[in-house]
Amino acid sequence: MHVPDGYLDAATTAGTAAVAAAGVAIALRGARRELDERTAPMAGLTAAFVFAVQMMNFPVAYGTSGHLIGGALTAVLVGPWTAVLCMTVVLLVQALVFADGGLTALGTNVTLMALVAVAAGYGIFAGLRRVLPAGRTGVLTAAGLGAFLSVPAAALAFVLLFGAGGVADVPLGSVAAAMGAVHLLIGLGEAAITVAVLGAVLAVRPDLVRGARGLQVAPELAPRPSAAQPLDLR
């Protein structure tokens, strides 16, 4: 999904950079409402996890491979606004340290993976949470479908950008067919990883999953008060 330098013309690249900058600026304001004593450290851990897992590719088809985007997973764990910031940091480090995606294409990659993937994944998750049973299974089902559909949503956004400013002499229909077919398969891997990670966290610390707040927590899994916290004997 990482778009390399030179795939889009200068005007389209500049346009996605502007969209990315505006999206991150809005996310900075929105994240203030999400970050608390639980979400802040979780955001750092989630960004580190997504960074590490994005470096590992899994085979898809036709000799291609894919990797986790992580937009839906991050949004469910720490909230959509914080997820945009986490994904942006991951993409920035990848571009600077590993030249993964390239610096001139950073705005494009932020738009696709930090804005479109997060918005699509969390939007679907939030919508399904309203109609699915309020329990662990409902959370995992909504997150899995959100993660699955977030990948072709980001791929479709790239196809639209390529149609507007692609520099390669490739028919748009061919690009759309290739991106659609491959990223539907990648979406299955995205959904599997997302459900596996969320399932593991929900099994031990459901209170750390922002998208699952409100679920009934078993007494043995409820967070215990700190030993240093004074008791109120009044």
Overview of this protein structure:
The chain is 67% helix and 2% strand. The protein has 234 residues and is mainly α. The protein has a single domain, classed as Arp2/3 complex 21 kDa subunit ARPC3 (Orthogonal Bundle), CATH 1.10.1760.20. The protein has a two-stranded antiparallel sheet with strand order 1-2. The model is unreliable at 217-223 and 225-229 (pLDDT under 50). The chain starts with 9 loop residues before the first helix and ends in a 30-residue tail after the last helix.
List keywords for this structure.
single chain, 234 residues, mainly alpha, Arp2/3 complex 21 kDa subunit ARPC3, two-stranded antiparallel sheet, 67% helix, globular
Give, in spatial order, the strands making up the sheet with the most strands.
Answer: 1-2
Largest β-sheet summary: 2 strands, antiparallel
CATH topology: Arp2/3 complex 21 kDa subunit ARPC3
Return the string of H and E elements: HHEEHHHHH
Structural domain tally: 1
Protein structure class: mainly alpha
Number of helices: 7
Quaternary form: single chain
The percent range for helix content is 55-70%
**Shape-level CATH architecture:** Orthogonal Bundle
